[in-house]
Every structure is written in structure tokens, then in C-alpha cells.
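Exercise 7. Given the components listed, write out the predicted structure of the assembled complex. Treat all entries as one system.
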Amino acid sequence: MANRITIEVARYHPAHDEKPGFDTYEVPLRKEWVVLDALNYIKDHLDGTLSFRWSCRMGVCGSCGMTVNGVPKLTCATFLSDYAPGPVRVEPLKNFPVLRDLVVDTSDFLVKLGKSKPWIIRKVEKPLDEEYLQTPEELDAYKQYSMCINCMLCYAACPVYGLDPLFSGPAAIALAQRYNLDSRDQGANQRLDILSQHDGIWGCTFVGECTQVCPKNVDPAGAIQQYKLTATTEWLKALVLPRGGT
Amino acid sequence: MINPTEYVPKSYHARVSTYWWLTRWVYLKFILREVSSVFVAWFVVVTLLQIRAVTSGPADYGEFQRWLRSPLLLTLNAVSFFFVVFHAVTWFNLSAKAMVVRVGGKRLPGIAIAAPNYAAWAVASGAVAWILLRG
Ligand code: SF4
Ligand code: FES
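Answer.
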């Protein structure tokens, strides 16, 4: 294995660039290095002005998502050696405004996430000294969706979100589903009112790439299709039982 | 103090290219799957025309068969057949994503959801082949 690899990094400085360009660096190619290590090497030894986000370095915080050779990846979980002999092209996550270099503006996702009400909603809270017990099966029903780390790789992979920024997007819907399927939650109707609108679940055309790029096997595409099924059943119920449906 | 929700820094917004679906094979596959619906619709039209030809007598049906044998129609129907198979296979495989079936608390694997679709397809095709080839 050659001991160096070329890495092309997207650069954008809001004060003097009209649009992003690329800078090319040579970094050591080490077996145990991930793309994030290469970026940190550049920042420490070659160009201290390079900006990018990261924190945990272990696929947990969800802040190091970038586009590596065209595909959304967690850079702390993407080995450099998989791209040998190179070059490796690192760009910011697609479909988000770029603030600087590899840093994107995540506000839109955060607003959408809030709209899905990703928390447990109770009609009546139990007294503080009572527990909400759950069986392993009940936990299993939503556990997969609870693994989401808000890394937004799914948004970067979703052409629908790219073309229609109003679309709620994969993770926000998967997280709504995470709470809908939680036996302790009673807020499914509130979420359905928001997400059954045109820009919610029905915006999804099932490209399925969100599921492919998700580093946590959340399967947002599956969550959205299942949500569509629930919404249709609820709609039918309301049609047949206009008063009786809850 | 700057209110963080009001402070909007300058940022670069890339436009999605009109040809975004050519940038990755997975996107192209998605577009082909969507386009396949047109060919499914075409086969429905052919079937309706066939029913009309059958019901309006042997002369019309003979004419219809000659039309089907023209090189243009043969090519179009060969391409349509490929797309209809592609349509069926991709949607059968995706059906497992939309449906969660739990047996004894465990989610059934995708193959168990897709398999009955394939089985029904095979049975229906077998039945049609039997009706057509019988005489
Ligand atoms: S669903 Fe997966 S890809 Fe999307 S934000 Fe959550 S962890 Fe990331
Ligand atoms: S640095 Fe936390 S997920 Fe990569």
C-alpha cells in the first residue's frame, strides 16, 4: 500500500468566495486512519484554516457527516484505505447551505425535527413515583428508530429533499415513528396531523437511498412507508366511522 | 446580543442539477423504476385493445395479431416486458419495507414478505400460460 494519498477538500469562505472550490492535499495513508483523521492531519499540519465539524470520533454524535466521493458518510467511520489509491474527494453534506468549507447550516433539519414532536406525549402523566413499564417486545417495536444520531446523511442522500426543501425528510419522520410506536406514547394523532400533510410522508417517492446511507440501520425509508400505511388506515377509519374514530 | 435564531450568516446554496438522477446509479435505478409505470400502462392498453379485438370477431382479431407482429410493436413490447418485470421485482422487494409483520414478537425477515408475492406471480403466470397453451 502506498504510504500517501491525495485528498481533495471543498473550500468555501463566505467573505471572499462566490462559490466553493477545491484544495488538494497529500496526507499519510495509514491502515487505521479514517477520513476524519486525514482532515485533522490537514488542519494540524498543512492548513489550519480548514473548517469541519466533529466530536466523538466513534459514530455516536452524528456531527462529522460529509460527502465522500459523492456519497454521504460519517467521516469518523469511513476508512481512508477503502479509497486507495485515491484521490478522495471530501465535500460538505449535499442539500444543505454551506456556511464554510465542510460546515453546513443544519437549522432547517432542526426546525423539521421539532415539528415531528419527537418526545413522549401523554394525555395524563402518571405520578412521579409510578413507572411506565415496557416489555422487551414493546421496546423492540421502536428500538431501531431510536438509534438515530441526527447525522442528516439521509437528508443529503434524499433527492426529494434536495428538490423540495419543504419536505419533512427521512429522519424527522423516522423519529416521529419512533415515538408513535412507543407503548408509553399517546401523541400519534398529533404527529399524524402534521406529517400526513403533503410535505410530510406523502412527499416521499421511496427512492430508498436514505436507508442505504444510514450508519445506524434506522431504515427511515421503511418508517415512512409504514407511516403511509398507518395514515391510510386512519383515513379509511375516519371515512367509515366519522364519529367513532379517535 | 445577537439572537441566534435571527442571525443568518452568508451561505452557499447549491442548486440541484436537472440531471441529478444521472449522478449515481441508485438514483438512475429509481428513475427507471418510476418510468416502468409507463410500460405497465402500455401493457394495460394492449390488453384492452386485445379484448376489443377478440370480442369483435375473427377478422379483427387477425388484424390485431398482424399489428402485434410488426417489428415496431415487437421491439416496443420486448422493451415493455423488460420494464414490467423490473417493475414487479423492484416493488415486490420493496413491499417488505412497508409492511412489518410480527410473529411471536419477532419481525419476519423481508424475504418472508416478498416470497408470497413472487409465489402469487408464479401461480398467476402459470395459470395464464396454461389457458393460452392448452389448445
Ligand atoms: S436516520 Fe440514519 S442517516 Fe438519518 S439522521 Fe438518523 S442516523 Fe443519520
Ligand atoms: S465524530 Fe461523532 S459521529 Fe463522527
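Discussion: Residues A 148-154, 170-171, 174, 214, 216, 218, 220 surround iron/sulfur cluster (ligand 1) (CB under 6 Å). Chain A is about 35% helix and 15% strand.
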